[in-house]
From TrEMBL:
Classification lineage: Eukaryota, Viridiplantae, Streptophyta, Embryophyta, Tracheophyta
Entry membrane topology: Multi-pass membrane protein
Record-given protein name: Type II secretion system protein GspF domain-containing protein
Organism whose genome encodes this protein: Dorcoceras hygrometricum
Pfam families: T2SSF
InterPro entries assigned: GspF/PilC, T2SS_GspF/T4SS_PilC_CS, T2SS_GspF_dom, T2SS_GspF_sf
Amino acid sequence: MATVSATAKKDARALGAERAAVSKLTVYEWVALDKRGKRMKGDMPAKNASLVKAELRRQGMNPQTVRERAKPLFGSAGSTVKPRDVAVFSRQIATMMTSGVPMVQSFDIIADGQKNVRFKNMLLDVKQGLEGGQALHEALGRYPVQFDELYRNLVRAGEASGVLDTVLDTVATYKERTEALKKKIKKALFYPIMVVAVAFLVSMIMLLFVVPVFAQTFQNAGAALPAPTQFVVSASEFMKSWWWLVLLIIIGSVVGLVAGKRRSVKFAHFLDRVTLKLPVFGKIMRESAIARFARTLGVTFHAGVPLVDALDSVSGATGSVVYGDAVKQIRDDVSVGHQLQLAMRQTALFPNMVVQMTAIGEESGALDSMLFKVAEFYEEEVENAVDTLSTLLEPLIMVILGVVVGGMVISLYLPIFKLAGTF
């Protein structure tokens, strides 16, 4: 046992050293002459310039210049690996595998075409794992943030069933649709946030810079101010004295909400329930959660992942704490023998149409197909709801700004109209 433990530790240390070495590779730009004397150029990640020259000579080229690629002025290029990068990679590797290109060579080709340096080094690191005898899902496990548990489970199922290229193509489609849905949700939330932000900014400018000028004029005139004007002047005086407190309260509230949601499960559950009950946005959030549930479960089940394991992966992909807890409850019910449609009905969160289509899918043996249809329906519903909301909010923005700014302007001119009426 001691020998096995020592060996395991040694392998772990070797793997860690290997990963550290790959992460420290420097990208070099080179210029060389081929056998015909033709000038060639490119770039290559390596530990030092000498290794680049040696590799070029091995390929039959005469190195002319090899220099480290200049770093960008503002930070490092490609510092973040985005879900879209993973989706494009999945599509590329699936296409190459379908065309018969060996996997290791596919990784070389894809990494060579990457502009994102971090993702390029990640792919080269995964390729080294493959060359060392690891399965793809094991090699991808080195980067659990970019390739999450759901992604790795799907890859593992594809490897086990011998249809990895098909699974990767399905994963690419899944990630593309999921990201498109996320963008729709962000678009729906952007407009109301923008309305509030613009209204608040205009109000602060008016109260801090415009109203004090009028207030001084009114004070010099010695006239009694109407109630609306007095309210605006008092608000201006308060903001001039306590603007820092208002700003601190706003920032503290936002930070408190974010921190409370991350640290307290009960608070996150409460916020999610409140959001789901909102008149318009609640409907969009519910339908997007159902679409993600159906799409993710359909993809995992289609890939051959057992239903209970699939539900375990789906629970974190709904984008909602309430629906995530509901999926965990469904998983527990299914694990003791209940039908999926019955377990879904018990949560009281899924519309009758979704439950009925799931029941039909279970009875006909086409559960994945039915779930895909559900996902497509609700993705289209979310898209239509967001487009409608955007159309409605455009005039609403003008109305809110008009009421805020116009109300202040009218209140400031009321004393002037009053004074004019006395002459």
